[in-house]
Amino acid sequence: MENKGGSRSERRKRAKRDGGKVLQEYGSKMMDLCKKIVYILLKCLGDGLETKYYESEFGQCHGYLRINHYTPPNDIDGVEGVEGLGMHTDMSCITILYQDETGGLQARTQEGGWVEIEGSEGALIVNVGDLMQAWTNGRMRSSAHRAVLRKPTTCLSFAFFWCFEDEKLVLAPDEVIGEEERRIYRPFLCKDYMKFRHNIEKGRFEKVSYTIDGFAEGDALDSNEKIEK
């Protein structure tokens, strides 16, 4: 009998190739969605800001996809929850997350508690990242969050991160800051913050100093001072 599916090796190659195409298409759609979201956010920040800053500030942004697969320990029954990914903030401008029905995403409140973000079929979760927090001078906040396993089953999620280019000087425009406010974050290169975060990622997210606030807050210039780029 002829094996129309081909050999096992051929089937694996075909599955890998087809899977790669699906992921590329997904990433492309997430890129388009991020652009639309940022355009709307700029409109919310002030009249005409989307026209003035959308292309000049966000036109060179790039994105990357991360697939998270969490496997619970064998003894999870009876346990309140096991962290699959510890508390952290995203380094991006915008993050779009898809999580399966298992859920597990929790967002940290200002009071220090945790809110469950329920998984829902077909739903996407949008999160503001550290770079957007700095660019908006803190008007938009990057929320701390974590992934917690509560069920004896694996959890799968797709996180798409939309970021500034490495050489981008992250600096809140005067129109975003406002005349009555001061600049919270000093200007910095995107790649320098990425390097800062990669150096301290392992188990240190709980410390406030290892966020965008600890990296760029303080000694910032007033909005009317000249900034050398």
Automatic annotation (TrEMBL):
Domain of life per record: Eukaryota
Listed GO MF terms: metal ion binding; oxidoreductase activity
Keyword line: Iron, Metal-binding, Oxidoreductase
PROSITE patterns named among the record's database cross-references: FE2OG_OXY
Residues covered by the Fe2OG dioxygenase domain: 61-165
Keyword set includes Lipid metabolism: no
Transmembrane segments: none
UniProt keyword Protein biosynthesis present: no
Family: Belongs to the iron/ascorbate-dependent oxidoreductase family.
Protein name (record): Gibberellin 20-oxidase-like protein
Organism the protein comes from: Ananas comosus
Species lineage: Eukaryota, Viridiplantae, Streptophyta, Embryophyta, Tracheophyta
Encoding gene, per UniProt annotation: LOC109713268
